[in-house]
Design a protein that fits this description.
Keywords: Signal. The chain has 500 residues and is of the alpha+beta class. The chain contains 16 helices and 18 strands. Helices cover 36% and strands 21% of the residues.
């Protein structure tokens, strides 16, 4: 380390101690805070501290309010500037459509916590998303030269422009990107990032298991209806599952189900199996093929087998289950209702700092960038909830406005199993299994009153339908001398989280 770096480190440590005193006593504004200057310090000093300050969650904007032409101003406390106010002023259009006009947001910043910090904001309507950053205490302006279309003007008149704060500020946001990118990295670095995220935000525990990390499975001890819970912790699917677990509260990110044919051969039914074209479809494949693919999976999957309870196993209608599985084979994975299964209430299902305002803004962004993706993920599902057909996101918002329905309420309308989408019934991995359980008689007399497309993976594995007596588990189960209530048949780590 250079002499300059050592001197700078001492200065930072000195101001770190003084800074806490000055902030507490409000004597005066400190020149800088440690997290403002860490990026210029040597890598071996700055990164460990930054990792404690910021996480992938810090990338999510915090909704501070909507600035409308009807209110005088909105006020809030920022990450850098503790005093902020904003107001909206309509302006004349610079386009031919003189009836549209534009607007200017006047945003005043004051009371910065240090001389080096800055605040980053996202400004959004369902028709646009833009951003700006501020590092000086004064009035700033953000100009919308013209509204995209009359519907945007009407939306802003009624609801205003949503203002989102990036809570960690500019430098924090940039370094949070460093934290989120590893979630999708197919490396040991990426695996550690996923594990650390799950530990921090979900209270998950990961303990290294002794070898062997895979069980020597006897298919004779596996039965139709037995449930497979899969958790991937590295690579593209590892990162995706980590975020899925965070929003749904599940400690598994994928599922599959076991089936025995008339000759005793073991098969696996799975929604979300990638075919040779890269498409995610529903398949029924031999156990040996599924197990070989799982062992080769670079995402380092952790796999648990949850046998059905013996009483329910005896009631399992294998013929009906097979008929259902073959009827669904080859059909696409259920993207249409994937995000709706975990949104049941207006506010309580969102892990902070997520909220409905952010959800609609993200939907809007993806609709602009990838219209076909948006149509597949939520447009059709939102049309189902309104009883309409073919409306895009903007038209859906107009329709909800006409009906007096808030968008966050629209998101909470339950999915219905009988809904048929443009490519058939929308069936996620867990909906596929629970639909099979319905057909096989596992859910009994309440079957007709259950909408399985509303279930998350957590909802499924917490059902009281699985083996609850450890002494009846197969002898080859890697359950660590009875420490686990299920068979962990593959995995480097034992998840000590009480998720069953």
């Amino acid at each position: 380390m250079s002499a300059f770096a050592r001197a700078l480190c001492l200065i930072v440590l000195w101001f770190t101690g003084l800074g806490s005193h000055f902030i507490t006593s409000h004597a005066f504004k400190v020149p800088f805070r440690v997290n403002d200057v860490l990026p210029v310090l040597p890598h071996e000093i700055s990164w460990p501290v930054l990792n404690n300050f910021h996480s992938a969650v810090d990338l999510l904007p915090y909704f501070v309010g909507s600035v409308t032409p009807n209110n005088v101003s909105i006020a809030w406390k920022g990450a850098c500037f503790y005093g902020n106010e904003a107001r909206l002023e309509f302006t004349e259009s610079d386009r031919d459509e003189t009836d549209l006009g534009g607007a200017v947001i006047h945003l005043t910043t004051s009371a910065a916590h240090s001389w080096t910090c800055m605040d980053l904001y996202v400004f959004a309507t369902p028709y646009r998303i833009t951003w700006d950053y501020y590092f000086s205490a004064r009035e700033h302006t953000l100009r919308f030269d013209s509204w995209e279309e009359p519907a945007e003007l009407e939306y802003v008149k009624q609801h205003g422009v949503s203002v989102f704060l990036m809570p960690s500020g500019m430098m924090g946001t940039l370094f949070s990107l460093i934290d989120v990118l590893p979630l999708f990295s197919n490396t040991a670095w990426g695996q550690k990032a996923n594990i650390d995220f799950l530990k921090k935000h979900m209270g998950a525990t990961f303990e290294k298991r002794p070898q062997p990390w895979r069980a020597t499975i006897d298919p004779a001890d596996v039965h139709s209806g037995d449930f497979l819970a899969v958790s991937k912790i590295r690579g593209r699917w590892g990162g995706f599952e980590t975020l899925e677990k965070w929003v749904t509260g599940a400690f598994a990110g994928h599922t599959a189900v076991c089936l025995k044919d008339e000759t005793g051969n073991l098969w696996i039914g799975e929604s979300g199996h990638e075919n040779e074209k890269g498409e995610e479809i529903i398949v029924v494949i031999p156990w040996e093929e599924w197990w070989e693919l799982t062992l080769k999976d670079s995402s380092n999957p952790q796999v648990a087998l949850l046998p059905l309870h013996p009483e329910l196993r005896a009631k399992f209608n294998s013929s009906a289950a097979w008929a259902y599985a073959w009827s669904m084979s080859g059909k696409p994975y259920g993207y249409h209702n994937m995000i709706f299964s975990w949104i049941d209430t207006v506010a309580d299902n969102y892990p902070p700092p997520l909220d409905a305002n952010l959800v609609i803004s993200v939907m809007s962004m993806w609709t602009r960038l990838q219209p076909s993706y948006a149509a597949n993920m939520w447009n059709e599902a939102l049309n189902k909830r309104l009883g309409t057909e073919g409306l895009d996101l903007h038209d859906i918002l107009v329709e909800t406005e006409k009906r007096g329905i808030a968008f966050d309420q629209l998101l909470t309308i339950p999915e219905q199993d009988e809904w048929v989408y443009s490519d058939g019934k929308s069936t996620t991995c867990v909906a596929f299994i629970l639909s099979m359980y319905k057909e096989a008689g596992i859910l009994g007399p309440i079957s007709s009153s259950i909408q399985v497309t509303e279930f998350t993976i957590r909802d499924a594995y917490m059902l009281k339908i699985f083996e609850d007596n450890q002494t009846r588990l197969p002898s080859w189960c890697n359950n660590e001398d009875g420490q686990l209530p299920f068979c962990q048949i593959l995995g480097e780590y034992r998840d000590g989280t009480p998720w069953l």
